[in-house]
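Convert to structure. Protein one:
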Amino acid sequence: MQIDPLLVGGLAVAFTGFKLRTVVFDLDATDVWSHATKWLVPAVLLAVAAAQGLTPVDLGWRVGSPLRFLGRVAVGFVVLVGASILLSPVFDRIGGGNEDLEAGMAELADTTLAGKVFIGTTAGTTEEVAFNGYALERLAALTGSPPLAGTVTATAFVLGHWSDQWSPSAVLRIAHPAVVVTGLYLYWRSLPVLIAVHALNDIVGLVFAPEVEDDAAAPSAATQ
């Protein structure tokens, strides 16, 4: 089987681009500029996709009617929030890192409302383009198995958070929404819907995140 170097490069960017940018730019994860640099990842991926001759549909850009779009966004958001509520007692029982996650979210949320909207929108757009729009769709086309492709991309997304910014227990909390979002994408195969669901979930989370306590240094955190 002939290996497409553009595909290999695109997958490498999708899976490692967010981490790589933090090394290249030596970023402070709580700075808005740090989140602005995340747009470099989808920019590179779109350039790679154009070189491959891919169309927007090949990257999951399927919208449908405005009413269907809004309905799916509403359902997706309810499913995502509902899953978090239902699983929260389980994570609490096994020590699922809620304190670490809340501390990280509080530090991310230590900005203006406009900053929170920007951070949430950036995370939802850039991460969905990378992991679902490019990686999942390309792996699904390569393997012929969207579920297998989704398993790979969801795993890569979760492992990408395992660093000094998030503790292993906090990553456990991050894993379940990643699985839910991937499942929703596999069901609808609509990138705009999942961008909206992801961004809305992050924005709401940041708006209602607890405030940073001055007497306790919260661990540095970043969505990716």
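Protein two, convert as well:
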Amino acid sequence: MWEDYLEQATHLIMNKYHKRRAQAKIRQQLLSIWADQIAQGTDRAQAAVMAMATLGNPEVMAVKLAEPLRQQRGWLWLVSVAQLLAGLGLLVASFRTESLADMAVGRVLTAWGFFSTSLNTFHHSGLRQNIVLAMRNVRFGLSRIAWAQGLVVMATAALSGALAAVLCSLPWVFVPNTVFHPVAVSDSLGLALFAMAAWGPWWLFRKRLVTAFREITWQIWASLTATAVYTILLVWNGQFVPPPFFNWQPELYVLGSFVSFFAALRIFAFFFSLKERIEPWRDDEIRSAI
């Protein structure tokens, strides 16, 4: 019952999991209306028709339900393009300055930016509309939640950046030159400690940070905050700088750490959202769409 209606109301949702969840919520609303009509003595078939009429046009509903996810995909594309342009800019600058650090970071950013931009361009339909929806949100997603919860997100991100600055400098202090390959050991420990710094605070406060795992715009803000704290600490005190980065300029810390923090948070948000069944809508938003 209502299968065609449910399909029409969710056909713009590309994510199969979100599509099933949306259909389940719409079906729940339809069943509630249908039960009320039956209780009033309406025929079952007529009650089913009246339930659909009460919820309204499924095409209009489809547009409203798909908008949050399409907007976030638009932001993902914009971030990917920004990373690609930043990488190309560093490569061009490295040819003029003959800086090996600029060239190394530029290559990584360009490769990652090209991969993510290609994925976000060819994997999703309606790209132009997604970008328009993203740019229409001129407040960058700040207006969708209470400031108190937003401050918790930013504070957690700042803690992540500070931990990364402290922990990632430790292996070079404790790993002696007598180790069979001190650089390899220190790099491996550095990556492990960065994972702890990038994911630890989010795991610790995960129950209060659902917004950060639902909203890509807040993941961007969180990554910017972590990047700012990390870069400020490294520039303020050279003891926080791991030896491989001793000749990096501040702009390299900003670009490299933003990509790292954003990728780490996206990975954590993906798995946490699957585990906790976090959807792109809040309950009040899907009720208003219905």
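The mean pLDDT is 83. The first helix runs from residue 3 to 10.
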